[in-house]
Structures are given as structure tokens and as C-alpha cells.
Amino acid sequence: MYNMYACSPVFADPLEMKFPLLFKPLHFYRDKSEVPEWLRRANQQILDADCYVIVSAEYNHSIPPALSNMIDHFPGSSFSWKPAGIVCYSPGKIAFLFQNLVLRRNRLLFSR
């Protein structure tokens, strides 16, 4: 029987993880031994996850630049074939819809 209380969530907060400005994403490294260790570890956490929940504030009718930068470090295949959810919040009435569309377009939730 599955024990739902045995879950161990891992939080990937752009403010805590301090991803550098994107210069070379993981999937652009031809020689995988050249991938920085912090990027390799972060990708392994993504691959090991059972599902994803992205929580994002609204920033200028989109997602915050730090979140976009963090996501762009990884190929869409790192997130593929796993259940995912988007939670967006905004002071406006419909701005969360724009965030939802941006996250979907980022190949984050519906990659194949």
C-alpha cells in the first residue's frame, strides 16, 4: 500500500539555488564530463522526482525572470512523462492565465 505521508518534497527556489545567468544549458554540453557539478546534481534531482508542482508569482504578465532562467538550464526531456501542476498567483484578475501559458510553452509540463 502506498503511504502518501512518506513523500519527501524537494524545493527548487531560484533565490536559494542561485542559478547563474544562463550561458550554456545542460543539453548544450557535448562532453558530459564538462557539466558543472551543481548543474548535474540539480538535473538528477529533477530526474528522480515523481512529479512537479511549479508555484509562481505574476511578473509583468509572465513568470519571474529568475524562474525562467532556472528552468531554461535544463532540457525538456528532464521533465518528461511525469505528472505536473502549475500554481500561479497574481494581484490582477486574469494575469495568472498568462503565466500558465508561459510555463506550458516552456516545454516544462507537456514535453514528450
Automatic annotation (TrEMBL):
Residue intervals of the NADPH-dependent FMN reductase-like domain: 26-94
Question: Pfam families from the xrefs?
Answer: FMN_red
Q: Which SUPFAM superfamilies match?
A: Flavoproteins
What is the protein's name according to its record? Uncharacterized protein LOC106820158
> From which organism does this entry originate?
Priapulus caudatus (Priapulid worm)
